[in-house]
Write the structure tokens for this entry.
Amino acid sequence: MLDEPRLESPDGGLTSTLEAATDESRTSPERLEAPLDLRNAVRFKGWRGGLLVTFPAEVDWEGSLDGLFERMAQARDFWEGAPCTLDLGARQLAPEALAALLDKLAADFDLAVVGVISSDEPTRQLALRRGIEAHGDVPVPTSKGTAAEEVPVARYLKGTVRSGMVVEAPGHLVVLGDVNAGAEVRAGGDIVVFGTLRGVAHAGAAGDLDARIQALNLRPTQLRIGDLIARAPDGGQPPLSKFPEKAVVEDGEIHVVPA
């Protein structure tokens, strides 16, 4: 997924590039030639079916953590249960520092750290001892390329998908009703909701980036298409749309457009 400016639907829908908030008072003018906007420092991207969190080298560790946790606290529903890889660059972390970060992400945000990227060998060894995959560089993603003809027929579900429910379909999924906040729908192909989608939706779950998510009112907590991920913008849910919308992948990012 490209690390580019925010992408929104015409009425303020989803964004596929996430920025980390922070406390600007921690910026040190002695260390930096110009003030650094820490809201854009720690970077979030959809990656390998989850999230890639990149820590910038020019921001001290404590400042990075402050911004990371403040941003995550503003959108807890988005992070819950998501697999996550941490890109630490060349940082050299003490065992207790990495352990504290991993424990807090799991305990406070239900975020599963599955990978660490670091050019520092001792840091990679720390991750491996915690049972976490370790890389010296960002791995090159591979294309899964699920062929459209391999996707089975659609599953039809009549009724509301309520909070706490998870509905899956190996092919396309059609919901004749609403998908409430706290619910999740997953499909190997497309997802079509004849109602309001407020929960989590994952289309093309086997890696099909040609899949799409469509609803009469598209207001989800989180969208996934293939390995890409997007969430609702900050500031609460926008008003219901006057027309159906769909989420599709264009130029490596999830876009929401009129259906």
About this structure: The CA atoms of residues 217 and 240 lie 6 Å apart. Residues 1-36, 142-149 have pLDDT under 50 and may be disordered.
